[in-house]
Give the backbone structure.
Amino acid sequence: MRDAVFRADRLKTMRMRLSAAYKGVNALLMNEGALDWRSGQSFNDTVFFDENVDIHHIFPKDWCTRQGIKADRYDSIINKTPLAYRTNRIIGGFAPTAYLGKLEAGGANTPPIVPGDLDSYLRTHLINPDLLRADDFESFMRDRQERLLAMIEGTMGKSAHRETAKLPDDPEPVVEEGDDENDALEAELTMEAAE
């Protein structure tokens, strides 16, 4: 971790499921104690495999599309978190206010969830429940980015690299064919930090 470098704005562009950084953020969330919103269970190995845990949108794709929010914003890791398959089915394409209400009300196969308990489950995913309950996508994205950065910085034991204004003469990073541009830039910054 001594030589690790993480760019703060990387969270906004991290969308690739196969990216090591993408997987790392979700592994950190689970390691830090993220709980499933429906069951309140931690994501240990048993639950992870038995419940078909995957990474899902917090503000659902369908809802974002209806609001005119572009995919490059709603598909970032900032708007994603690990959830059990059954929990994601309840969320569907609804606004957070609607799906949180469904989770709290329960159903034929799911018990109701006390709102305070649900809020505590959301906090384990570094989500401010008030912003989610207000369907406030923009404030949510800013707030969660800062919370995710704090988690990453705490793990690294140092601050993330905050971008400064780029000078016109700064060279563009070289990206090899087949590489994700952001992963290549991350690797370049890591090499610079090690020198």
Observations:
- Confidence is low (pLDDT under 50) at residues 165-179, 189-195.
